[in-house]
Amino acid sequence: MMSCPIWITNFKTYEQCVGKKALELAKIHEKVALETGVSIGIAVNAFDLFRVAQEVKIPVFAQHCDPVDYGAHTGHLLAQSIKKTGAIGTLLNHSERRLSFADLQDSEVCARKASLTRVVCAEDPQEIEKFAWLNPDFLAFEPPELIGSSTASVSTSKPESIAESVSLSRGIPVLVGAGIQSVADVKIALELGASGFLVASAITKAEDPEATLRELVSAF
Ligand code: G3P
């Protein structure tokens, strides 16, 4: 289990983060984690998961897991297979890979059975309250309209929703994401009770991802 505050970079399917580049970016995260002592993980697309998880010592997450057990489920992402890659956990219900509540419940159970750390994503504080009952390891609050923004962040645009999410999470650590790009964004969210971050573009699109990552986690 990672110790809070934590940082997870979501590689999504950005061109800078697939194939050989996924491994290079993963190595950068490993280096920064080792040198700073910050709990840093990465969420990697399914095709790069095995290679990356085998090559780095930081926590690696899948970006999605389907609600299926062993059996005839062509094309699905099986929790047990995720575990066998060496990944430690999975994101569930990311805003770009939404699940029905029934499927989210089942995916959470499948991932739990495979001993994966579960990060359940929510779009607003009401979903945080609802999903907290699933008892995941982490909840992640990401307002969809701010995801990928380079001009506004959840910290500057929705600070009250961060505080509300933390208060409704029943003690489950809340990560925040969407437009996080500055040390000020990180500090605001931590002051409001966030236990960590789920970030993509600030790192994946940075000219110098290592320097940017170092700068952002320096606020920890
Ligand atoms: O999962 C992370 C995410 O959706 C936030 O993306 O690009 O706003 O940091 P971004």
| Annotated CATH topology | TIM Barrel
From the coordinates shown, what is the CATH architecture? Alpha-Beta Barrel
* Helical content band: 40-55%
Shape descriptor: globular
- How many domain modules? 1
Bound molecules: SN-glycerol-3-phosphate
What is the SS-derived class? alpha/beta
Pick out the low-confidence regions: none
Main beta-sheet annotation: 8 strands, parallel, barrel
What's this, in brief?
With 220 residues, the chain is α/β, with parallel strands linked by helices. 41% of the residues lie in helices and 16% in strands.
Characterize the structure shown.
By secondary structure, this protein is α/β, with parallel strands linked by helices. It has a single domain (6-217), classed as TIM Barrel. The chain is built from 10 helices and 8 strands. The protein has helices spanning 20-36, 46-55, 79-85, 101-113, 125-132, 154-157, 159-168, 183-191, 201-204, 209-217; strands at residues 6-10, 39-44, 60-62, 89-92, 117-122, 138-141, 174-176, 196-199. It has an 8-stranded parallel β-barrel, surrounded by 7 helices. The longest helix is centred in the first third of the chain and has 17 residues, at 20-36. The structure holds SN-glycerol-3-phosphate (G3P). SN-glycerol-3-phosphate (G3P) binds at residues 10, 94, 142, 147-148, 177-180, 198-202.
